[in-house]
Prior knowledge:
Blueprint: H1 2-7, E1 10-11, H2 16-37, H3 53-67, H4 70-80, H5 82-89, H6 91-125, H7 132-137, H8 149-165, H9 179-199, H10 216-232, H11 234-237, H12 240-267, H13 272-276, H14 281-308, E2 311-312, H15 314-321, H16 323-341, H17 348-372
Helix pairs in contact: 2-3, 2-4, 2-14, 2-15, 2-16, 2-17, 3-12, 4-10, 5-6, 6-8, 6-16, 9-10, 9-14, 12-14, 16-17
Amino acid sequence: MTSxxxxxxxxxxxxxxxxxxxxxxTGLVILHHTMIAYGAPGGWYFKESTxxxxxxxxxxxxxxxxxxxxxxMFFMLSAYFVGPSYERKGxxxxxxxxxxxxxIPLLIYSFVLATIxxxxxxxxxxxxxxxxWQFVNGYDGWISPGVMWFVEALLLFTLIYVAIRQVxxxxxxxKCPGTGTILLGAVVLGLISFLVRIVFPVGWVWEPFGFQxxxxxxxxxxxxxxxxxxxxxxxxxxxxEQGRFFGRLAVTLAFLVFPLMVLAAVAFKITATSxxxxxxxxxFLYSIWEQLTGISIIVALLWTGKQKWNYTTPRLTKASRYxxxxxxxxxxxxxxxxxxxxxxxFEPLIxxxxxxxxxxxxxxxxxxxxxxxxxxxxxx
Length: 380
């Protein structure tokens, strides 16, 4: 009886596929950071990188494709629900609710969870023989948002939205963009990203907030797109032709064009830095590639979700309920796993194969415990 219940699909007019996409994005975030820990480019708390160049190429393709869209899509989907929630609750209640549901987890992560994780890395990754209290007494990283930079930025964008709503209805009647408009928008966004990266290179972080302005043109743009999409029902108007076109384009850009770009960079001894920032042809091409790829993946995912994922099951409902807690607490799971595996004399790629599924399962299990706890379930 239980297995029959959990496998039953429950169709509805509710946009269930957006919850499913959020869950998928959360899983990609967990895998993204696990792959960085074992050799993909990017910053992370504890790294044990593979020396295999072919493996690094595969990992780089994965994280580059992810980076092109997944956080921007998070902003877009979050913005999609901002307007209806604001209108339902009113400005004061809406702001209080956002401050509680976003602000409190941000404080918990920055002041408690980050301290614990940094201690684990310092003690077991760097092998300093200190107690937790000795570490805390010399600790100077008390404001450490880590992955919660997203929550900071989302809270900031939301408060700006509320401020604008005090003087304007902020409503626009616009038809769903066509394929040409979407492509043009992606190219323009790539150009803006290129210009921003001349001043704020990829990897430059505004401390202590953790913001990388190199990626913010997409985040700001897609937050605005989310608001417009909800007002004008854009997601429901995406056509089959658009879904298939952008799906094919995304696959071509991510799995053919980008590897060729990397191989060309290696052949011509082009550094990763010159590809991702500064006034150079390489940086310009990478910025255009990134936005075309990211926007293509987003459109393809929305169309696929609308066609195939607009249903729920008790198991999917439960998993989507845990998604935010999975996002907040997954670094603790990933760090713990990589530290445990660091004592084994395996090739890092083997450790990645072990760690990746365990990171997903462990994040899910920890999130389930947290969401079910009396004090935390109101926040996650």
